[in-house]
Amino acid sequence: MKTKAKEILEAVSRGEMSVDDALLLLKTEPFSDIGYAKIDNHRKIRQGMAEVIYGAGKTPEQISGIIDVMKENGEGIVLITRLSAEAYQEVSRKHDIHYYEDARIGILGELPKPDGIGRVVVATGGTSDIPVAEEAAITAECYGNEVVRLYDVGVAGLHRLLAHQEEIMSASVIIAIAGMEGALASVIGGLADAPVIAVPTSVGYGAAFEGLSALLSMLNSCASGVSVVNIDNGFGAGYLASMINHMEAKL
Q1: Among 26, 168, 182, 211, whose CB has the most other CB atoms within 10 angstroms?
Q2: What are the distances in angstroms from CA 162 to CA 158, 186, 188, 191?
Q3: What is the DSSP string of 86-114?
């Protein structure tokens, strides 16, 4: 994945940026301390993706303050996860944010054009898994990925999934999201030639233990190439999928 630091060095190599200007960008204060938060200004330089605001537990005033600092440091797009509708209403009075209610995500700025090496497929076992799936899908889109959504294709009606074999086989990375017993990830892992990121959800009856049953099933998957993130962690899955979909050969 091309980081900001690599882009700066390539610009110097092409003669499009002076050494002094590049040095200034790399020496900029690595974080901004505003009391209740220390914003990592160098996250994009190190990892290619800017810091994300986790909205849960933060007041609208705190979220707005963090956005102010990120904008001052040149961030063109700001992603806010787990943003409640009430907090969005307050923050939107100061900042022009697009809110995705199902995903509980707020985005400041325009989504970039896809520039990944392929497509990210996001599949769910059921309709009840869509909020987590949308968090994953929108996160991936925020980082420049083309996303294909395959919703309600769980193993209780396997023909629904098999009807989408072309999308599955053409994906660069697949995010499989399911609650209950979490079997979807293993089934997709056995069909696909791409990495599969499994996301257990807290959907299910009592013995599902709020996602623990699906988590353990996915961790014990007999299909090769399946990795697992935490329960309901759509953001983590979308972020990881984007990293995979932007990998470059390191010579």
Answers
A1: 182
A2: 6, 14, 10, 9
A3: HHHHHHTTTS-EEEETTTTEEEESPPPPP
